[in-house]
Amino acid sequence: MNADVRGPGPGPGACAPARSVRHAGPDALVADGRVPDGLVTDAGVADAGVGDAGVADAVLGVGGRAVQGRVVVAVALLDDRRRVLAARRREPPVYAGMWEFPGGKVEPGESEFDALVRECREELDVEIEVGPMLGEVDLARPGWVLRVWFGRITRRVPRMVDHDELRWLGADELDDVRWMPADGPLVDRLRQVLVGTGVGRWPQS
After folding, report:
1. pTM of the model
2. Which domain holds residue 117?
């Protein structure tokens, strides 16, 4: 992701917290890049606050919703060993060395799925299959939201284009890297899916 949309802070060097996060079960399949009503499952509510890494505690909610601002999409790419691909940013300096799920902004007239496919071609030089949604996070910029989907690579091997390191992480390795503020709140949910304790499994085979 080239644009600094996942953590614009209130001052130089600050990583802004994501405002809230909603989790979607990996068995909740969607189509055409749209998020239907009722996709997100109820996981209770937690107090919002800023942790040591500058990431807000998750505020979990229910209900799919239309976004009035801008949608940013990212993909948690899984391999046959149920590891996820993480990419380390090299710019701008305030976010260099932090890790993220590949993705970027949805362009006007583009579906969310089309944006994921395009971003993976541009950032990783791979073709992907998009699966169900992992969850979504309100970004610090008003009206902006990050939606993270599951996916898997169908053609070619990932290579570094926009990032300076790529790493396949198992469930027990997710805390070995420092995640971007907006990606971080979904890591615990991802961990549940990787170890098989989440709602459903994707892919099934």
Report:
1. 0.71
2. 20-194
